[in-house]
């Protein structure tokens, strides 16, 4: 809870007020989003009655039968089906692989595209109709956030960012990333139809910001003392090895567009 409160305080300090908030329906993301919303609505100058929308599309990647189980190496001569029958889950190495009943990275990327077309496109159209910028918050989870940011940048065919989106997989709890997104002029009319892909102009302006955590001691159980959401167990056991923090924007050598 303290991390969520520190994040809310940081947004107030930076004078960031949200016109709409979208959040995963899982407990951790929803708690953080609600804390930010409440802080904004009780702060002088902050917008009140901010739209607050829960979406299962914003959930973390599902590992199906592998949820909460440690991964290991694949045994030579043993099929994946045989591994699963023995309760063993070898690490996944491609974007197409998934555990029984789970979701692959490619399938999660399709879910990210659905968020873009069902949420972002409508918010950008609303921005155009109102004639003023809108600031929208999306509260989700580490792996899905990486896929969503990658999907957004793919909508900008001229994207020249110098950050590999895959580095987002090492994001801190309540760390946040800021994107400035606008409709490409030639997309204004086409974007009225959900059957035509909308193209964006994208600027990635800060990755894995977590300065608000600098004075907090780490607590067990995720955000504050919150327990795990029974709808989706802990996935840290699948992220073996030390996770890299996302590099600073000014210190990154330009890389090819991710994925």
Structural overview:
By secondary structure, the chain is α/β, with parallel strands linked by helices. 28% of the residues lie in helices and 9% in strands. It is built from five helices and five strands. It has helices spanning 2-13, 27-41, 80-85, 105-130, 142-154, and strands spanning 20-24, 52-55, 136-139, 179-183, 200-204. Helix 1 packs across helix 2 and helix 4 crosses helix 5 (142-154). The radius of gyration is 19 Å and the shape is globular. The two termini are 34 Å apart.
Radius of gyration: 19 Å
The biggest beta sheet is recorded as: 3 strands, parallel
Overall mean pLDDT stands at 79
Distance between the termini: 34 Å
Keywords: Hydrolase
GO molecular function, one term: fructose-2,6-bisphosphate 2-phosphatase activity
GO biological process, one term: negative regulation of glycolytic process
Protein name: Phosphoglycerate mutase
């Amino acid at each position: 809870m303290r991390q969520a409160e520190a994040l809310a305080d940081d947004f107030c300090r930076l004078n960031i007020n949200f016109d709409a908030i979208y959040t995963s329906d899982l407990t951790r993301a929803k708690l953080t989003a609600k804390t930010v919303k409440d802080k904004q609505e009780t702060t002088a100058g902050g917008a009140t009655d901010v739209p607050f929308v829960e979406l299962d599309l914003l959930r973390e990647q599902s590992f199906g039968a592998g949820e909460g189980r440690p991964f290991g190496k694949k045994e030579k001569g043993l099929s994946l089906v045989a591994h699963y029958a023995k309760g063993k889950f070898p690490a996944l190495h491609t974007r197409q692989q998934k555990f029984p009943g789970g979701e692959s990275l490619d399938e999660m990327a399709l879910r990210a595209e659905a968020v873009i077309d069902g949420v972002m496109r409508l918010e950008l159209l609303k921005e155009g109709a109102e004639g003023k910028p809108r600031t929208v918050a999306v509260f989700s989870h580490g792996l899905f956030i990486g896929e969503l940011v990658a999907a957004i940048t793919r909508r900008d065919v001229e994207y020249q960012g110098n950050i590999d989106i895959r580095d987002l997989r090492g994001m801190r709890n309540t760390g946040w990333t800021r994107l400035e997104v606008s409709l490409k002029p030639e997309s204004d009319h086409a974007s009225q139809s959900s059957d035509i892909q909308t193209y964006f102009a994208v600027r990635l302006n800060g990755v894995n910001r977590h300065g608000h955590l600098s004075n907090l001691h780490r607590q067990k159980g995720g955000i504050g003392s919150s327990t795990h959401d029974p709808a989706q167990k802990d996935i840290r056991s699948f992220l073996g090895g030390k996770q890299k923090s996302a590099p600073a924007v000014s210190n990154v050598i330009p890389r090819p567009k991710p994925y």
